[in-house]
Amino acid sequence: MKEKQSILRNDGFQTFAASIVCILLGLIVGYLALLIINAEGAWDAIVNVMKNFFKYPSAAARMKYFGSTLAKTAPLILCSLSVLFAYKVGLFNIGAAGQYCLGVALALYLALAKGMAWPVCLLAGILAGALSGALCGVLRAYCNVNVVISGIMLNWISLYGTNMLLKPCMDPAGKDTFRLVNKAKQAILPTLGLDKLFSNNQYVTLAIPLAVIMAIIVWIVLDKTKLGFELKATGNNLNAAKYCGMKENRNIILTMFIAGALAAMGGALYFLSDVEQWNVNASAVPGMGFNGIAAAFLGGLNPIGCIFSSYFITHITVGGGNVDLSHYCAQIADFISAVIIYLCGFVLFFKTFLNQRLNKAEERKIERARALANDANKEGGKA
């Protein structure tokens, strides 16, 4: 019993349990919404959302579309890591969407317009997002400009800047940029043989393992290094960090530099995998950066948790396209995700409630032990 209680009191276990509860409640609310819209097909709709690639009868088709889901998960993992990294240092990187755009802009421009190979395109995209993040950090450190304000403004500057930069790379037959497979094969990320594991799915590239590796690196940096300790100390109490001799302005700028690099890396990896093309007439900031906020909090603000939360959000989002569109809209999956993220705001409440229950259980156990000890003493005295 003692070992069981120690597990229940583990912060990681409590966060995981709270996330599972949020997911289940979100699915229930989503199902109720489907019932209200059209009761007859509600069960089939929620099942299709959750099944995603499992709906295909053949194993080869399931593996192929599973690979596509993983390809779409990789950029979300990196965007969630971007939000998480900044949040751990007391900053809210809402500018991840704009940094994502800049990663796409430089990567695709160098690939399609300059014929560069994928390593150069990837590094250039990462650097562009890193500098954008660093700019937010400089404004925060030296001008006391809230990173939320600067991030939102840079989101739109980055979006329209990306559109202008990629306009010459637009396919005349449509509104999107050229396919890399047709114009710049040298810029497509290597598959490392992973495509064969997923029924020759060409979208399964280096991006997927690289995203997982970056999550592990972020976890190590934040929890196992002196730099991570300094960054988190700066976020927890800026004045205390300054008093201890830490360079608080440098830490803020460095944090946003790294956060921007992570988000931009997500954009660069996704488009260099040739999963889709950039719409040069886009008037809305890509949702990937904002979805990163959802994935970060659903993952309990843990880098490893972000891997699983990002996959789950991508899984149900892709599955949302499987619902009967004559009765429901594909955005039902986004609705479910929104409910789940809203419920994540109650994670602290859940953990507090669980700890209170555990404390009461321990108090009752102690009281019973004392009562038994007193009874034993009384029996001993009579003897």
What features would you describe in this structure?
By secondary structure, the chain is mainly α. It contains 17 helices and no strands. The radius of gyration is 25 Å and the shape is globular.
Question: What structural keywords apply?
Answer:
about 375 residues; mainly alpha; globular
- What share of residues are in beta strands? under 5%
Please give the largest β-sheet: none
Number of strands: 0
User: How big is the Rg?
Assistant: 25 Å
Helix and strand content put the structural class at mainly alpha
Q: TL;DR?
A:
The chain has 17 helices and no strands.
Layout of helices and strands, plus pairs?
Layout: H1 2-8, H2 11-37, H3 42-51, H4 59-88, H5 96-112, H6 118-143, H7 147-166, H8 180-183, H9 194-197, H10 207-224, H11 226-236, H12 238-243, H13 248-272, H14 287-298, H15 303-319, H16 332-344, H17 347-382
